[in-house]
UniProtKB/TrEMBL annotation, chain B:
Every Thioredoxin domain range: 38-176
Tagged with keyword Disulfide bond: yes
Organism name: Sporosarcina newyorkensis
Gene Ontology molecular functions: antioxidant activity; oxidoreductase activity
Cellular localisation: Cell envelope
Keywords: Cytochrome c-type biogenesis, Disulfide bond, Membrane, Redox-active center, Signal-anchor, Transmembrane, Transmembrane helix
Gene3D superfamilies according to UniProt: Glutaredoxin
Entries under PROSITE patterns matching the protein: THIOREDOXIN_1, THIOREDOXIN_2
Protein name: Peroxiredoxin
Keyword Hydrolase in record: no
Record's GO cellular component terms: cell envelope
Amino acid sequence: MSNIKCQCGHENPYGTELCEKCGRPLSEKAKKSDIVDMRYEGSSRRSQTYKSSIVDKIWNFFSSVKIGVSIIVAVLAASAIGTIFPQKFYVPATTDAEYAEYYERLYGVVGKIYYQLGFYDMYNSWWFKVLIVMLATSIIIASIDRVVPLYKSLKKQRTRRHPSFMKRQRIYGEGDVENTEEALAKAEEKLKELRYNVKTENGAILAEKHRFSRWGPYVNHTGLIIFFAGVLLRGIPGFYVDEAMWLREGETRNIVGAPGYVLENRGFILENYTKDEAEEVFGEALDKVGSIVKTYQTDVTLYKEKEGALPGSDDLEKMQDYSIVVNKPLKFNGYNVFQMDYKLNELSTMTFHLVNKSTEKSLGEFTVDLSKPEKEYDLGNGSSVKMIGFYPDYDGVKDGEPYSKSPVPNNPAFIFQMKTPDKPEGERSFVAIRQTLEVEENDYAVKFASAETRNISGLTIRKDKTLYILLLGGLIFMIGVIQGSYWQHRRIWVQKDAEGHILVAAHTNKNWFSLRKDLDKVRESAVLPAYIDRQDPELDKQEQEGDEK
Amino acid sequence: MAKKNKKQIRLISRTVLLLIMAAIIVYAITSKDRVKVLAEGDKAPDFELVDLEGNAHRLSDYKGEGVFLNFWGTWCPPCKKEMPHMEDMYKDFEAKGVHILTVNVGEPKVKVELFRDDLNLSFPMLWDKNKTVMDLYNIKPLPTTFLINPEGKITKIIKQGMSEQQIREYLESIQPK
């Protein structure tokens, strides 16, 4: 892997297309071409240079743009396939066996394969993670491999270029003018006026503008990598929390995802607009739909474990009272608790009468708080009701016993022991909604009188320490895009060759039209030979002939 | 000489970058959850809960002895099924230095008491009214049982009901030597 020595004397690294200094074509391909390939200034991309060790081979693999594009296509294809069936998140199952069963039952063999390949939980599947990290690797390596040689060759470029370089530019012209010195001086002046960076070297001019726009893609990639790093940090416990929980009115519960904090729901409020207050804005809509919500609000009290207290202990200190409404979350220690959902009217208390069945006379009433039932309700005057069984979500009798299928009071049932002055040993009665069962005929009965309900707040708990990293990544990404899109790197070479001819060449990475405009302006003040745009020669000929008339 | 040096630097920097990316892949694949989820081999986090009688229990009270920590709910049939077996072995193993602690996941206290009286259970029933310890131990299905050895390490997490034979083996596995 020896260096290539150019005729001008400069040593170029192996794989160089155009001499870093004078621009002479070095490779066979460059020598044969009419217009030289100016990508990366014809410099040697380092990946193409060394292929000796295994490390170099892996490096070269990731350096390839083709590989990079293939990885992007693979990520896109996988993401598209991942949307065909619902993701794990939306599936009502908890164990792996249940998930497998769900996909197979609903989507057959395809569903089974979908599950087995991990598409059902794509973002957590090992191969998706591998793809994303490969993409990041490709971006980093491909960028390093291009930006370094590009920077070097732009830094090393000489003002005087070899005619073979000039001739192979897309915009090129040559000819004789009467006063070459004057032409060069005028051109230099005009180029400076056009705010080019002008360098001269006995009879040669290099005018350059907006070189920084060449770094746009690399700045952009840096932003992307920072963004990836932020996303990666989300996987580390403590950086990112996105949880949800239901909190009943009156309930106090540990905050899911926020260890050490406890939240009490003091009440959920759902308010609608009244016709009077919102006639002007919502009048018409109210007539149409009946009601429009004004507020979803959860009044909460936040508690924190005291310093040194163990989880689960009652050693809590009150932090604050707060009313969470939509878009006004409860904020503490980097966490936000948002109002997200609600359920209305879950049974909370039931009031019963103890009645004498024959006389229908009430011996008193008692109220059972379903979240905090008591063992015994004393009705005074010698009567009491004892709770023997409580089944919040009664679902029939299983194995000879009443069965509750969940702890939620959807369909409460009770077994009461009723003690009265007449029957001091007590009578038993099974009481469910619209159902009373007795082992033997009782004299007394517990009769349902009324019920109260409560609401449930759906809250989400969020914490995102990576947000500013993502923001920074996004910002740098956009700076790169702007830098690369709104400016172009333009270069104009004017020089007198050995025979006294004037050579003109120009190059830009985009927006050739504006480059020609610049060149035309230079030609207005300095007498320079006509040039052609060799990718669009006809157009130029007409324009320049027109100018000369 | 200079050239050889340069080549070496290149090889080292390339290797370092590739190794970092490989480490990221390994990390991304092995870290499954955003929140720290307890795994076998982890230290069992300490907590303090009161039982139905109001006595406070700390996990650290049982340091040097085995703890069979069972999370349960009254509505869960396998929980109900395994409890009498636990009761049968409770006294025996208490003497051998293995404690059975059960944690009810925040149901009404009366409901838990009725359940206990119904099955005649005598081991401590801790009452996690704020579901703090339930969240701390990432309890999803019920019953879930943690076997904690005398060193305070979780040796096994059982996410289903257990037979009498299994319970005995598990209890024996965390018996102090």
